[in-house]
Specification:
Radius of gyration of chain A: 17 Å
Order of helices and strands of chain A: EEEEHEEHHEEEE
Number of domains of chain A: 1
Oligomer: homodimer
Strand order of the largest sheet of chain A: 1-10-3-8-6-5
Distance between the termini of chain A: 36 Å
Number of helices of chain A: 3
Chain lengths: 208, 208
């Protein structure tokens, strides 16, 4: 399996899995604005190790990493570093991915695309048929808890072209889903996203 | 496997798994005060379904259920209902269970008991050798996020005999761990807990 590089456009409501090598940078771009991106990371050599929100909160001592801090796995090892945030800086690590049951509970009749189905389909296409469904990194999602601990379901504040850049700390599978949620109003309207992968710089040489 | 009833004392730093039938009530008691209890619930007929913090937050629209509300599984089905809270009412659904790596990172030399090891050992003894390690329901744990999103590592405020009562909404395996964390100060001192299981009332009959 070769590592992904270059630009990848992901259609509205769709997902994409990319094999990313350690050191590469991944820029996740909200092309049209107002679009949440559910994001997961799995250790490429053992997908039972994956990004874990509850371990990241302990690692960084807060609800979301700051620039320079790392997301960690369920084995407390860094997997993604937050390198840059060219967005309003509002993201979520509290809310489960949408799934068929969520849309059924919201009153949708018939099938509706969901981030959980996108994750499972993309990882299956990559050869992984038995995976956990971890809490996503919900980029650009604006659902903070208020002082009383109530979740506020607010619209995403991103503008077209807003982005977040993550560095792969280990070889990993990155999965993104352009969240198809169009019932609760947290996306302005489901739109496409773009993922740009810049390869790791060549190993530095000693020119002394 | 018969369902658990009656009183079960769990020694400091230890865990216990109990098979609880739907409708039974489980009272979790902090015997000495100042003690966190990590709690998990697994569907007894399929342990790949388990309590999920990120799905519960969506279900209740907040960081923790109120009295009468239910914790739900990764399939968005109620598994435990919060029936009564005879404690300061401060609990956590954000922080991962302590594990050997956590104690190593905190500078502990050699083995240290942990909630994750208690969970895995108790479920293995019950015959389940392949389980997820979900975010625990951290009863009595006082680690809120402040307005800036920073986790505050505060001491548990429970007094001796404080308790929480949960009703099993499905047949389930309940696992509790008297959290052995004695480095960060969130427990006053690791102490024992008690679990009282009251069986489901007999099915009501129609006396008309």
């Amino acid at each position: 399996m070769s590592e992904a590089t270059g630009r990848h456009v992901v259609a509205a409501r769709s997902g994409l899995a990319l094999r990313v090598e350690a050191g590469a940078e991944v820029e996740v771009i909200d092309l049209g604005g107002g679009q949440i991106v559910d994001t997961w990371a799995f250790n490429a050599s053992d997908v039972s190790e994956f990004h874990s929100a509850e371990h990241t909160r302990v690692e960084v001592g807060g609800l979301f990493p700051a620039i320079g801090e790392s997301f960690v796995t369920n084995r407390r090892r860094p997997i993604l570093q937050l390198v840059a945030d060219d967005s309003p800086g509002i993201h979520d690590l509290l809310i489960a991915a949408c799934d068929p049951t969520r849309y059924e509970q919201l009153g949708v009749a018939g099938w509706h695309a969901s981030c959980q189905e996108n994750l499972i389909a993309q990882m299956a296409a990559a050869g992984f048929h038995e995976i956990a469904v971890p809490q996503p990194i919900n980029l650009f999602m604006n659902t903070p808890a208020d002082a009383a601990g109530r979740i506020q379901w607010l619209a995403t504040e991103t503008m077209p072209g807003d982005s977040v850049t993550l560095r792969a700390v280990m070889d990993l599978w990155l999965v993104v889903s352009a969240c198809p949620q169009d019932v609760t109003g947290i996306n302005r309207a489901p739109g496409p996203i773009e993922v740009r992968v810049r390869p790791a710089p060549p190993a530095s040489e000693d020119h002394g």
